[in-house]
Amino acid sequence: MSVKLGYDFAGWAATTNVMCTDGTIIRPGAFKDNDGDQVTMVWQHNHKDIANVLGHALLEDCGDDGTRMYGYINKDTEQGQNALAMIQHGDIRAISIFADGLKRRGNEILHGDIKEVSLVLAPADPGAFIDYIAHSDGEDSDEAIIYNLAPIEIAHSDVKEEEMEDDKNLEQQELEHADDEGDEILGNLTDDQIDFVKALVGKGYEKGLEDGRSEVQHDATEDEGNEGENVMKHDVFDAPQSNTSVLAHSDGCTIIKDAKEKYGTLQQAMKAYGEANDTVLQHDATASGFVQPPTAGNVTMLFPDYKEVRQGAPELITNDQGWVDVVLNKVQKSPISRVRTSHVDIRNLEALRAKGYVKGKEKTIAGNITLARRETDPQTVFVSSALHKDDITDITDFDYVEYLYKIDRLQLNEELATAIMLGDGREDGVDGKINPVHIRPIWTDDDLYTIHKDIDFEAAAAELQGEDTDKHFGQNFIYAEAMVNACLYAREDYKGTGTPDMFITPHMLNVMLLARDFNGRRIYSSKAELASSLNVGNIYTAEQFANKTRTTSQNKTKKLLAIIVNLADYQVGSTKGGEVAHFTDFDLKFNQMLSLLETRLSGANTRLYSAIAIEEDVTESSNP
Question: Which fold is adopted by the domain 450-570+609-617?
Fold first, then answer.
């Protein structure tokens, strides 16, 4: 092939119908409008530093074969002399183009505008190589340098057919070797990382700039459906800041190659590239460097996938469940759900006292007694949920059905324990309310069954301080003493069996444990010592007790502080078939599995004066 006099070298800037490393294919005529154009020639696409300008190139459209370039090196500059020496020595052989205004169809480049030609270490286009180097005297010659990996046919009068065939065989072997390396690199990546690598070296994202245009590599492509539009693009690693460097197509190839041969991971290869080229590759949108918008492929996609610390189902965050198990385990179970309790209170009944007889006088009949009786019927309590069949099929890390069942069972258990201790809490008449006549709550039960004891912290403080105003007991000490006094005084009326337990909020327990004397020493060294002072068996914390209030028949507002009870005195009755059962059914219309967890039971305290509720009167004063 003959080239014009005065040009230092020539080669293919872009070849057609060849698969580039990013998966794009340049079609014939894509750059025909650049025929005869003169463009700047730089090193490694670093066109933001004038020191990297090596000269210029003339472009020639060669129809179905592609686009050729004729390079003129600026020999008056040091960088130009160095570049020419490396070209003549064979150190540099690859060519890359920089284009914008790309129009595509799928992965095919149909049109573009070449703005720059660059000498690079590795091309994206396997056919973009220098194939002609002029003599030093500048005379025209038909000599050419043929590089492997470049599918270029060049006529040469001195080349024999056997040598040409050997060159083709060697070329094919190197191509296969390159493909094997590429497959091995991509084989170590996830599907998302493979997609991003393609975007890294060959795709850009839409971005409007103030000057109405932005540059991209020849391998950056437009979105589907934008054919014919002059969509503004920039390089896939280009940051929104105007002073951010462009990561060229050939740079992406270099990073991937280094990841395979030197560093083992893409992340380390990117870091090394940034250090070597005084560039920062990062994903922090608030810092300088290469940044990605949320809608585009992000650099972090190259990093290893996140690993679950705890494999399987997500960990549940629940309210305090310890006391729930205590309640359900300690209540008395009965196979009878319809129960009746009958009591006669003969304490302090003067008419029932035995009398001394006086001869000659009539013996009197004892007075009447009062019978206290109540009946409790069962109620059905349930939890229902729906599981879509698609979710059951798609979730493969754990058993989704079993996981939802576990959640439903936790909800049912907590609801039953709450109904036993505190009550349902929902307003009367609300759909789904657990009626307190079926499961009778200990806290709000009748005074015959639950002793309601008020605690007055202000009175306790005045009693401890007395008239000695120089003494200032800490609030924790005052609260602890007031609680101990209230519990012990209430125990005087307690008629339950055995030793009761205390259920209290975590905060109130900590208040008592942190009580100190004047010397700063803690009054109670442990929870066991505090339980002994309160005359209870064990202390259980229940965060669900916090800030619970009730309104009495006298319109007084009482805040719950603690419940003291032996749960063996509380009976939960359920007949055969009323125990907790799990039912499932499949809804064909909505393609979902229906789950029902339910039980039918009754609950009631079976002994008079067998529970104590410690409360604080928080009624707001009506006085101005």
Answer: hypothetical protein PF0899 fold (3.30.2320)
